[in-house]
Structures
1.
Amino acid sequence: MTNQMERIGTLCSDAEKGKALTREEIIELLVCEDQYSNIILEAADRVRQGEVGDHVHLRGLIEFSNYCKRNCEYCGLRRANKKLNRYRLEIEEVIDTAKNAERLGYRSVVLQSGEDPYYTVDKICKIVEGIKSSTDLAITLSCGEFSYEEYKQMREAGADRYLLRFETSSKELYKKLHPDSDYDQRIQCLNDLRRAGFQVGSGFMVGLPGETPEILADNLLLLRELDVDMAGIGPFIPNPDTELGEENGGLLIDALKAVAIARLLLRNAHLPATTALGTLDPRGREKALCAGANVVMPNVSPMKYRELYALYPNKICVTDDPGHCRNCITGKINGLGRSVAKDHGHTLKNTNK
Ligand code: 5AD
Ligand code: SF4
Ligand code: FES
């Protein structure tokens, strides 16, 4: 046995037993030779099994508007991207799409959009109230930055959860990638969401240009500090219609390791096997489900809009209808010896499981 293999094994077995990994230890895991990565992924798989069990939660993703007033350098929806045809669903269309998701067996939907000024808080609340009054779905919103009062209004309208990735924990890198946004504001929003009573999801991309193992370790520690209920982690995929189109993307193994270390650190948080992981590798989502992840978010948006929600190229499922994806993903989950959860998939924090 090599020294490094032994060292990685010790770190993982201590982490598995619940010892909190330090920043230096996380960096050691992140930079270990690829041949030892499986030790980390397997430890995370066991922690996942012990903490959240074998059920996989499905959330139906509704991409209701691809308009965005922001200009994140990595994202195809950025306002400067004039090549993209923009669309938005009307309030009733979003509600109908949610009803269809429930008919397909989903217990939970995620309503995601760019930061679209057309969708005022009042309109978002109308959608939430419409879905809550006609279905039994849990609702996650993912529509960007708002004030505390606005988040509170959304929560009072009945939304259960909110996803807002911090994208990177490095203030410097954040500034570079988001010329017109502010890191402290982002963190403020995450605290406001918690105060407004939401189950809070955050997360980041792996392999952004300029990212170092130190930054990646701090991303993971920030998830723990924020005590998130959910954490979405996916590789950066260069989009040719953006500033970063010529850069290198994140690697599958690095993204999988980040998911695995998140499981070791966050214990019973919900961790999705992200669409970006499925885009890098046809079995990317399955690999993530075997490395700590316990959630999948299949697309349930109407077919005609699918290809326009182009965060990055070659997104999976763009030509597959919602019924097909529901069956496909159930097959993949069952193929791993796991099963689709039947409950709403609320947070497991502050519960005994
Ligand atoms: N590659 C990977 N993920 C991306 N996102 C946006 N653009 C890209 C890209 N090029 C992610 C961001 C955002 C989420 C909705 O999609 O992390 O929070
Ligand atoms: Fe807009 Fe979100 Fe894309 Fe940034 S990442 S440009 S806020 S859709
Ligand atoms: Fe969409 Fe498999 S989940 S085709």
2.
Amino acid sequence: MPEVPHDVKDMGLAARGKLKIELIEKRMPVLASIRERFEKEQPLAGKRLSACLHVTTETANLVRCLKAGGADVVLCASNPLSTQDDTAAALVAEYGISVYAIKGEDNDTYYKHIKAAVAHHPHVTMDDGADVISVVHAEHPDQIGEILGGTEETTTGVIRLRAMEADGALQFPVVAVNEADTKHLFDNRYGTGQSTLDGIIRATNVLLAGMQVAVAGYGWCGRGVAMRAQGHGARVTVIEVDPLRALEAVMDGYDVMPIAEAARKCDLFVTATGDKHVIRGEHMEVMKDGAIICNTGHFNVEIDIPALEAMSTGRRTVRDFMEEFTLKNGRIIYLLAEGRLVNLSAAEGHPGQVMDMSFANQALAAEYIVKNAGQLENKVYIVPKDIDEHIAALKLETMGISIDKLTPEQEKYLASWQEGT
Ligand code: ADE
């Protein structure tokens, strides 16, 4: 394999990374079937693609699929703490893909890596958090004419992009992969649900049964975390600002209350809102001694960490990804994974079975952008319904599950308005 430009931690980790990438491939059959078709049809032939994603074994299988489809791919990290260094090394050494990602990289290195991906002069961008799109718009508007479109993986990125569209600032079309049902109903809910608890347990080794767990945000991610925490025997409180979601949480059986109240009551706090400073100084001030706080949203802004630092007299790392802060009031608070997404920092992110669908959407969205080059407006598009349904059908098939079909009589009934009781 000819060496490609890269910046990864240790190429000596490549063999271990390759084993893990191949292991997870078996759990991603929908993506594997797309890769097979891409190999034959070459829908991305000659296209440069810059992907800014969490560098995991699942992502490795996505970039292999894109490369099989003819794309010239460069991959950089979409978070400084989520990179799996063995996977990054394997992608370079075993699959010939340029990777710029090191777990624990500082902010300067993080942006240097994003700039390396932008310097690839992509025809297609692929983001998880809209960082490549932001850097292109802010610093390289000269490249916009070369870009056919982009894709976006996560809720936070879609929020940013919709704000750009509303401002008239978005300069090329973007497909919001997050909005596909086969993405958020599974990845956000079951993926975040399981991997967030996995990260918390790996970091702390606490027993969730009997704990009072507060989940801030009752979107698909928060729903997943609340559901799985309850499944572990935790007593779950939901914190929301949206009346409809709060009502849903109540009827799903959770306690719902303002964060100021939950702060005094709960033992473990998980933020999943996509907004900033959800847990603030005044909340940490009244938390119980030994409270644990963490975040599973995309950016590390949901917990006001500067406030926590200012109100503390000391801090030390007590386990990997677990920092102990001693407050001026004498109490202790534990912060996990520096307030970055705990599921990808302290654990390995969502398992392959759900990333299979998320990344099938990514691959097919990239193909859609190339196929429809020049015909899309500078807007945020949802994944076309036929692609979403195709992925759901393929997933069921690979799980060996068959379902019923409407009879002609049923189809006719649904299409008619004359038939009554
Ligand atoms: N986001 C959440 N989990 C992920 C994973 N395993 N790989 C890539 N992106 C992710």
